[in-house]
Every structure is written in C-alpha cells, then in structure tokens.
Design brief:
270 residues, six-stranded mixed beta sheet, 6 strands, Nucleotidyltransferase, domain 5, 39% helix, alpha/beta, single chain
C-alpha cells in the first residue's frame, strides 16, 4: 500500500500540484482504501518465488499439458496418480487475536522448534488416498515414533529428514506398488522430476508393473502440482489447528507427530 501512496505522490509532484488533503502530497490510508473500492482494486499478500520459477511461461505449461493429454488418453481416473513430498513443522503459525488499538507488538508464548518432518502423499483422480510414508530427521527409528499414526503408514529416517533415492524406492515398493497392483491397465504416476526419484531399480520396477512416470516441468510445481494446488494448503491449515489444540495438553515431539498426522489426513481425505 505504501508503494501505491508514493506513486500518487510522484504523480502529483510531476504535475507540480500540491494536494491540500494530503500531507506532503502523500495520500492517507483511508483515501487509498476508498480509491481501491471505487475502482475494483484489492490488496493481497504476494508470495515470493525464485527467478527460475518466474521464468516459466504460458508456452511451457501448454506444452506440458499437450503431452500429458496424450499420456492420459483413455486412462480411467483410478489409474491416474499424483505424488508429492511435503514438510510439516511444529510451528503453529500466526493466530488472529484481540488486542487494544495501537498495540505495536502482538505476541503469544508458544514453544516450537525448527524441526520438520517429511511426508510422501499420493492419491488418484478417483479420490483414493494412499497411506503416507513419513521420514524423520534422525539416525535411528524408534518404535514409539510409529504408533498411533494413519492406517498403513510407513516410517523411515534419513540424516537430513528428506526423501532420498532409498526412501523413495521403499515408498514405491511398499506403498505404491501394492495399491497399483489392484488396478487394471497402465498406471500413470505424476510427480516432480527430482533425480533421486528415478534410480535404476525404481525405473525397472515401474516398467515391469506397467507404470508410466510423468514428470512435471522444472520449476513449475507451484502451478502444475495438483497436491500443492488443491490438497496441501487445506491439509496444513488443519495440521496447525490440531497442533494448536494438542499443545494445550501435551508437548510436541517425534512421538506426537503420528498422533497429529492421523486426524489431519482423515479430515482432508474427502
């Protein structure tokens, strides 16, 4: 909004005008809001994206969907799958609170760490959601980290807490393949193009089981990844709500992750 006010100031000075309603020719916030309402303008927070992502243009997206259309031709919805890895943190995010007007610093005491946990989510176009695979940042996997979670969930650990070639291969073999075997015909698996997802063993297993990988265009997942666009936002909103309520009764830990993940997925499964 300040940028808009300064643009008006610059315009007035260029025209050598002195607007008495404005202090130093800078319009007030109320004027800007009234001007915006009259002219159909709204103010929204702009997300930050890397330059590489901003370079993805209409032609790149159109080319991807043209190629995808040929791949999906005649494929039934229950054979079209989308997978994606996401991170969940113990930070509950900001919360709207009531304070006295003029309060400059609004804070609430809420313990949290920088700990994040990775989760692989996959579903098909028929609305079926597969069990997740959860990867903790740790050296060893302890039994109490794997109890109370979503039905059928698979657990693992990596040094950095991200999916690597080994954990992705394990997800493919233990979660995706058993589910895909119940479907007839070619299965299409849509996801990102990370090289760690396509080791020789995984590619060979896909070929043997009539599974076709369809990779999203580089730097375009914020536009073309279905789970990012349609599922993760609501899921993470639910996660923060449950996390915020759960903290009243307990202390967050890796053991608590499964307890919170289960209702989070159940509420967003439909």
């Amino acid at each position: 909004m300040m940028d808009f006010r300064l643009i008006i100031k610059g315009y007035l000075e260029k025209k050598e005008r002195n607007e008495k309603r404005f202090k130093n020719n800078v319009p007030g916030v109320d004027f800007i809001r009234s001007f915006a309402a009259r002219n159909g303008i709204s103010f929204r927070r702009a997300g930050n994206i890397r330059r590489a992502r901003s370079a993805v243009d209409h032609g790149d997206i159109q080319d991807y969907f043209d190629r995808l259309r040929a791949v999906l031709e005649n494929a039934p919805p229950d054979c079209i799958f989308n997978y994606d890895e996401t991170n969940l943190t113990d930070h509950p995010g900001e919360k709207l609170v009531m304070v006295q007007r003029g309060t400059k610093r609004v804070e609430r005491v809420q313990e949290h760490s920088k700990m994040t946990t990775s989760m692989m989510v996959c579903g098909n176009a028929a609305g079926e959601l597969l069990p997740p695979m959860i990867v903790y940042k740790a050296i060893n996997l302890y039994e109490n980290w794997t109890s109370g979670g979503p039905r059928g969930a698979v657990y693992d650990v990596t040094q950095k807490g991200w999916f690597d070639a080994r954990t992705f291969r394990r997800w493919f073999k233990t979660v995706f393949l058993p589910f895909a075997e119940s479907k007839d015909g070619v299965k299409i698996l849509i996801g990102d193009n990370l090289s760690s997802h396509f080791d020789p063993e995984t590619v060979a297993l896909a070929r043997e089981n009539n599974i076709y990988f369809s990779s999203l265009p580089p730097n375009s997942t914020h536009l073309t990844q279905p789970l990012d666009v349609a599922f993760f936002r609501s899921m993470k909103t639910t996660w923060r709500q449950i996390l915020d309520t759960w903290r009243i009764e307990g202390f967050y830990s890796k053991r608590a992750f499964s307890d919170i993940t289960k209702p989070t997925l159940e509420r967003n499964a439909n």
